[in-house]
Amino acid sequence: MNRATAEAQKEIAEEEGFVPVLAWVKDMIDSVIAQELDAPDLEYSFSAEDTTQENLHASNHYKQIGHRENLE
Fold first, then answer.
1. Does pTM surpass 0.85?
2. Under a CB-based contact definition with an 8 Å cutoff, are residues 26 and 46 in contact?
3. How many whole angstroms separate alpha carbon 7 and alpha carbon 33?
4. Dihedral angle at the C-alpha atoms of 48, 53, 59, 63, nearest 10 degrees?
5. Using one digit for the tens of pLDDT, what is the confidence trace for 30-72?
6. Which of 18, 21, 42 is nearest to 30 (CA)?
7. Domains of the chain by residue range
8. C-alpha distances in angstroms, 26 versus 9, 23, 48?
């Protein structure tokens, strides 16, 4: 297995590990919405956007800017 494949597998495993936690959080929020806000017809949903690449790009951009400022 090459390094890129190993990193991709690690990322998938980490994301799958969050699914049960997110389901639990959703259930809790839905309960609050239904009971406390008296709105049982509403439900919470998470955004399904994959921001991993966006965050990586932003982080790299920030590092590049910081590096340039240190050179000046």
1. no
2. yes
3. 38
4. -170
5. 999 999 999 999 999 877 665 666 666 666 666 666 655 554 4
6. 42
7. 3-71
8. 26, 5, 13
